[in-house]
Amino acid sequence: MNKDLNLLDDEQAVEIFKALANQTRVSILQMLKDPDSNFSTQAHVIKDEGFEGGVCVSDIRSKTGISQSTTSQYLSILLQCGLVEMKRIGQWTYYRRNEETIKRFERYICQNI
């Protein structure tokens, strides 16, 4: 981690660039930017759970048209570099964008590239 907690270090930025080097992963992030417009109502996400905006893996898979295993792999890559957050609620797994990491990545690009 960089001395400034609001900045990514080069290694973290490279991992994000790698994740964004795939059109489907970029599309997933774009869809998750406005989940209310891009996905049906998420029945199991309860406001009290503190995970508003989360979208079930099966809905993401349906929207992208790729297999369940590839969807899970892509979401795992996005999770590992910090671009998304995950929460299990009951038997379902939900993902949403990690806006803080996205803002940190934006600052990295503005200051370093």
Molecular structure report:
This protein has helices at 10-19, 23-33, 35-38, 57-64, 68-80, 99-112; strands at 55-56, 84-89, 92-97. The protein is α+β, with helices and mostly antiparallel strands and 113 residues long. The protein has a single domain, classed as Winged helix-like DNA-binding domain superfamily/Winged helix DNA-binding domain (Arc Repressor Mutant, subunit A, Orthogonal Bundle). A three-stranded antiparallel beta sheet has the order 1-3-2. A hairpin with a 2-residue loop joins β2 and β3 (92-97).
DSSP E strands, number = 3
Number of helices: 6
Mean pLDDT: 91
What best-fitting shape do the alpha-carbon axes yield?
Answer: globular
The biggest beta sheet reads: 3 strands, antiparallel
**Helix/strand/pairing class, anyone?**
alpha+beta
Strand order of the largest sheet: 1-3-2
Radius of gyration: 15 Å
Q: Which band does the percent of strand residues land in?
A: 5-15%
- How much helix is in the residues? 40-55%
Q: What is the C-level CATH assignment?
A: Mainly Alpha
Task: Enter the CATH topology name.
Answer: Arc Repressor Mutant, subunit A
SSE layout:
Layout: H1 10-19, H2 23-33, H3 35-38, E1 55-56, H4 57-64, H5 68-80, E2 84-89, E3 92-97, H6 99-112
Antiparallel strand pairs: 1-3, 2-3
Search tags:
single chain, 113 residues, alpha+beta, Arc Repressor Mutant, subunit A, 3-stranded antiparallel sheet, globular, DNA-binding transcription factor activity, transcription regulation, DNA binding, ArsR family transcriptional regulator, DNA-binding
